[in-house]
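Q: Got a minute? One more chain.
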Amino acid sequence: MTPEFSRLVDARQLSAAPLRLTADEAERAALAQRFGLESIERLEAEVALEPDGPAVIAQGRVEADFVQMCAVSGDPFPARLAEPVALRFVPGPVTDLPEVEIEIETDEWDEIPFEGAKFDLGEAIAQSLALAIDPYATGPNAEQVRKEVGLDEEVASGPFAALAALKK
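A: Always. Here it is, folded:
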Protein backbone atom coordinates (compact mmCIF):
# COMPACT_ATOMS: atom_id res chain seq x y z
CA MET A 1 0.00 0.00 0.00
CA THR A 2 1.28 3.45 -0.90
CA PRO A 3 0.36 5.94 1.83
CA GLU A 4 -1.90 8.76 0.67
CA PHE A 5 -0.12 11.37 2.84
CA SER A 6 3.52 10.29 2.73
CA ARG A 7 6.16 12.61 4.18
CA LEU A 8 9.48 10.83 4.52
CA VAL A 9 11.93 12.19 7.08
CA ASP A 10 15.60 11.21 7.22
CA ALA A 11 16.44 10.38 10.85
CA ARG A 12 20.04 11.44 10.22
CA GLN A 13 19.09 14.96 9.15
CA LEU A 14 16.66 16.34 11.72
CA SER A 15 15.90 20.04 11.77
CA ALA A 16 15.72 22.07 14.96
CA ALA A 17 12.63 23.84 13.63
CA PRO A 18 9.28 22.04 13.86
CA LEU A 19 7.99 20.49 10.64
CA ARG A 20 4.66 21.71 9.27
CA LEU A 21 2.76 19.13 7.24
CA THR A 22 -0.28 20.04 5.16
CA ALA A 23 -2.29 17.58 3.07
CA ASP A 24 -3.27 18.74 -0.40
CA GLU A 25 -6.71 18.22 -1.94
CA ALA A 26 -5.92 14.86 -3.55
CA GLU A 27 -4.32 13.51 -0.35
CA ARG A 28 -7.31 14.64 1.73
CA ALA A 29 -9.76 13.01 -0.70
CA ALA A 30 -7.84 9.71 -0.62
CA LEU A 31 -7.62 9.77 3.21
CA ALA A 32 -11.35 10.55 3.49
CA GLN A 33 -12.12 7.49 1.39
CA ARG A 34 -9.74 5.32 3.44
CA PHE A 35 -11.23 6.47 6.76
CA GLY A 36 -14.89 6.36 5.65
CA LEU A 37 -15.42 10.12 5.86
CA GLU A 38 -17.48 12.28 3.51
CA SER A 39 -14.52 14.63 3.10
CA ILE A 40 -11.50 16.11 4.82
CA GLU A 41 -11.43 19.86 4.34
CA ARG A 42 -8.15 20.47 6.19
CA LEU A 43 -5.39 18.29 7.62
CA GLU A 44 -2.35 19.94 9.15
CA ALA A 45 0.24 19.01 11.71
CA GLU A 46 3.15 20.74 13.35
CA VAL A 47 5.70 18.36 14.80
CA ALA A 48 9.03 18.86 16.53
CA LEU A 49 11.54 16.06 16.01
CA GLU A 50 14.24 15.22 18.51
CA PRO A 51 16.84 12.46 18.41
CA ASP A 52 16.67 9.89 21.20
CA GLY A 53 19.71 7.74 20.57
CA PRO A 54 18.94 5.87 17.34
CA ALA A 55 15.22 6.63 17.76
CA VAL A 56 13.39 9.88 16.99
CA ILE A 57 10.78 11.48 19.23
CA ALA A 58 8.02 13.41 17.47
CA GLN A 59 5.81 15.74 19.50
CA GLY A 60 3.27 18.18 18.21
CA ARG A 61 -0.31 18.66 17.21
CA VAL A 62 -2.60 17.42 14.45
CA GLU A 63 -5.60 19.50 13.36
CA ALA A 64 -8.33 18.60 10.90
CA ASP A 65 -11.70 19.76 9.66
CA PHE A 66 -13.77 16.97 8.12
CA VAL A 67 -17.29 15.83 7.35
CA GLN A 68 -18.40 12.51 8.79
CA MET A 69 -21.65 10.60 8.95
CA CYS A 70 -23.86 10.74 12.04
CA ALA A 71 -23.91 7.36 13.80
CA VAL A 72 -27.68 7.70 14.39
CA SER A 73 -29.17 9.49 11.37
CA GLY A 74 -26.56 8.73 8.72
CA ASP A 75 -26.53 12.43 7.78
CA PRO A 76 -23.20 14.14 7.09
CA PHE A 77 -22.08 16.78 9.57
CA PRO A 78 -18.92 18.86 10.02
CA ALA A 79 -16.43 17.98 12.73
CA ARG A 80 -13.16 19.49 13.94
CA LEU A 81 -10.24 17.80 15.59
CA ALA A 82 -7.23 19.26 17.40
CA GLU A 83 -5.17 16.62 19.18
CA PRO A 84 -1.66 16.37 20.57
CA VAL A 85 0.55 13.78 18.95
CA ALA A 86 3.46 11.99 20.65
CA LEU A 87 5.31 9.34 18.66
CA ARG A 88 8.63 7.56 18.89
CA PHE A 89 10.10 6.22 15.67
CA VAL A 90 12.33 3.26 16.44
CA PRO A 91 14.80 1.74 13.98
CA GLY A 92 14.34 -1.95 13.48
CA PRO A 93 12.81 -4.45 11.12
CA VAL A 94 9.13 -4.13 10.40
CA THR A 95 7.74 -7.62 10.91
CA ASP A 96 4.29 -9.06 10.49
CA LEU A 97 3.65 -10.12 14.05
CA PRO A 98 0.21 -11.28 15.12
CA GLU A 99 -1.85 -8.42 16.49
CA VAL A 100 -1.88 -8.31 20.26
CA GLU A 101 -3.89 -5.86 22.30
CA ILE A 102 -1.75 -3.90 24.74
CA GLU A 103 -2.50 -1.12 27.19
CA ILE A 104 -0.57 2.10 26.64
CA GLU A 105 -0.42 4.60 29.45
CA THR A 106 -1.03 8.24 28.55
CA ASP A 107 2.58 9.15 29.32
CA GLU A 108 3.97 6.42 27.04
CA TRP A 109 4.96 6.98 23.43
CA ASP A 110 3.34 5.24 20.50
CA GLU A 111 6.34 3.43 19.01
CA ILE A 112 6.55 3.08 15.26
CA PRO A 113 9.31 0.91 13.76
CA PHE A 114 11.09 1.93 10.58
CA GLU A 115 13.76 0.39 8.39
CA GLY A 116 16.77 2.17 6.96
CA ALA A 117 17.31 5.85 7.67
CA LYS A 118 13.86 7.24 6.82
CA PHE A 119 10.46 7.11 8.47
CA ASP A 120 7.07 8.27 7.18
CA LEU A 121 5.86 11.09 9.41
CA GLY A 122 2.90 11.81 7.12
CA GLU A 123 1.51 8.29 7.42
CA ALA A 124 1.94 8.45 11.20
CA ILE A 125 -0.05 11.71 11.25
CA ALA A 126 -2.76 10.15 9.05
CA GLN A 127 -3.01 7.17 11.43
CA SER A 128 -3.18 9.54 14.40
CA LEU A 129 -6.11 11.29 12.73
CA ALA A 130 -7.87 7.98 12.08
CA LEU A 131 -7.50 6.94 15.72
CA ALA A 132 -8.82 10.28 16.99
CA ILE A 133 -12.04 10.27 14.92
CA ASP A 134 -15.07 9.31 17.02
CA PRO A 135 -16.78 6.48 15.11
CA TYR A 136 -19.98 7.00 17.14
CA ALA A 137 -20.21 10.78 16.77
CA THR A 138 -23.69 12.16 16.37
CA GLY A 139 -24.77 15.12 14.30
CA PRO A 140 -27.29 17.86 14.99
CA ASN A 141 -30.33 15.77 13.92
CA ALA A 142 -29.52 12.72 16.04
CA GLU A 143 -32.00 13.48 18.84
CA GLN A 144 -34.83 14.10 16.39
CA VAL A 145 -34.15 10.80 14.62
CA ARG A 146 -33.98 8.97 17.97
CA LYS A 147 -37.43 10.33 18.88
CA GLU A 148 -38.89 9.48 15.47
CA VAL A 149 -37.85 5.84 15.70
CA GLY A 150 -38.45 5.47 19.44
CA LEU A 151 -34.83 5.15 20.52
CA ASP A 152 -35.14 7.88 23.15
CA GLU A 153 -37.54 5.85 25.31
CA GLU A 154 -36.10 3.62 27.99
CA VAL A 155 -37.30 0.11 27.40
CA ALA A 156 -37.84 -1.88 30.55
CA SER A 157 -36.42 -5.35 30.37
CA GLY A 158 -35.55 -8.21 32.61
CA PRO A 159 -37.60 -10.20 35.13
CA PHE A 160 -39.11 -7.16 36.86
CA ALA A 161 -40.33 -5.75 33.53
CA ALA A 162 -42.00 -9.10 32.84
CA LEU A 163 -43.73 -9.01 36.25
CA ALA A 164 -44.87 -5.43 35.66
CA ALA A 165 -46.38 -6.48 32.32
CA LEU A 166 -48.36 -9.25 34.07
CA LYS A 167 -49.93 -6.68 36.39
CA LYS A 168 -51.40 -4.80 33.42
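A: The first strand starts at residue 8 and ends at 10.
Q: Perfect, thanks.
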